[in-house]
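dumping this here before i forget
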Amino acid sequence: MKFLDMLRKIDEKSEPTKTVPDSPENDQKNTKSEVNSDTSTTEVAKDNENKDEKLPVSVHDKRIKIEEQMNDLSHQYAQLRNDLKTNLFTEKDDFEAKKETLDNYLKTLKRDEKESTEKLADTKAQNDDAAKEHLAVVNADRKELEQKLNDLQDQLKKLNSEIDTKTTHLKSLQTKLAQNEQSETDMSTSIKEEKDLQKMLVLMEKQKQSINTLYDQRKDLKEQINSSQENIATLNSQADELNTNISDVNKQITELQQKAQDINDQMKSDHNYRIETIAGLERHIQSLGEEHKKIDGELSEVNENIAYISKYIKDVFHSAYLVRDVYLDKDKEYYVAADDFDSDSSQNDLFGMINYLESKLQKPVTLVSTFYNNHLHEIIDQKAKDQHIAIPNVVNLFDQLQSSSNPTDKKVAIPENTEWVTRTDVESKDTFIYDQKQTLLMTVEYFTKKINRINYYKNDQIVKTNIYNSDGQLSATQNFNKTKELSEENFYRTDGSIVLTVIFDKKKAVSYQLFDKNGLLEQDFNEKSELITWWLKSISPNTQNAVFVGNNSDLLYQLIINSNSISSDDTILLLQDVSQKIDDVIALLDKKPELSDLFVQTEDDLHAIENKTNRDISVSVINTSSDGTLSLPESLKI
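structure:
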């Protein structure tokens, strides 16, 4: 819907009058008065209505009414514009989240397709050549062993034949030996049987030659038998060795036969696996291709939607880039850093940031500060109550330096002196004290009816100021030189002991002297940054799960960010006077592309960034505009 169409629809509707809720105190008063005033109010209202009907409407009154209607319309327009922007950004974020999901899924699909295609090609390239070559080697080794087995068996056959021949020959020798021994026995028997000694001698003489021959034959036979037995033993040993070799060769042949069978079985298994794998991969790649095509279509549609919404946003908001509200993570802790509280603008910015954060987060934030204000807590508490937000946590440098476990009970009071002439300013309620000669001695300033400051004068010139906390304890003193310039500032613990002295030279602080509880100098810093750095080390700010918010020109904010190396993702930077120096702001954003979350002071500042930014960025308005007017686009301004 175009903006002008939206405005026409808004204009056609009657806008109900918006009322501002009364405070609880006013509510009670109104409740008490309602009973007594209902009747009179009704009568007065009727009289006024009758008078209004009779009174003519002037051109001026018409203009005022038109301006009021336009003001109401501008508020409606701003709200609708913000609602539309939020809706469009949410819709675009949804599409971008879907795009990211689809992109990641598509990357997974492409990676799977690539891996599957490579695996398919690798599987198709596989073959049994190596296995066949291995099988040929195994078969060749087996044939070689079979030939060796045949040779061994032939050798064993010949050896066994030789053993048989040797054994037969041995038996023949053994038979001859037995015959030889039998012949000897027969001769011995014939001699023993001869009774005639003479004949025995003749017979012995006659057989002597035969016996010698028998002994010679026996000796020869025994040698032949021994030699034959040794040969047979050697042959048997060779036969045993051949049998062992034959057994080993047979075992190797059996193993090679099994190995060949295993190779054949593995080749069949590999072949079947390749067929199944190739078929499965081809089906998977086809499925991936179909899914890829489907996701491409969805991604194309999402990209078209993103492009359409992006163009719509740019057309509607007249910006080349998207500017959205800063996202606040409620699970994180937010710390607002501030070193300056002196000017109205710095206070407005500080409370603007706190108010914005707590209104969005619905929980307290923490103020980390290094400025001095003797009524800091009262001011912050009252501001929080006025803005109906939680009271923020406060961590303050001077709070910690000035705290004491034994605070003094000595409270400030103005003594009575008959020599003094006292006057009170009607507007400020400040007290002026003079001597009898009308010479100004001191002035007393109040904060919520309690003494805040006492200024001491000499020759109508301020020389010293005492500053007191809400409990009436001395908090600080300021000493001035002859030219009314601040020369020294002292800060005290609540027990009355001095804790810090700041020395000034030509309005510039040149020394920060820190004292221990005994009044001895503990630290001496040349600059406030050194004091703050020392303090930050002592408190060790928790940078985990934290977001730090502050002005880039603020000393404390710079020190926290730089000394703790905090990522820009955990910071929100406040830019001041953006609409007046938009070119400098754009230059800053160009120089620091990591800056993505910004706070600005007014709607004009936001529109200035929307019109000039050259990248997407998150910007929120903390509404510290001094006049409270609503900034409208040029097309709606009169």
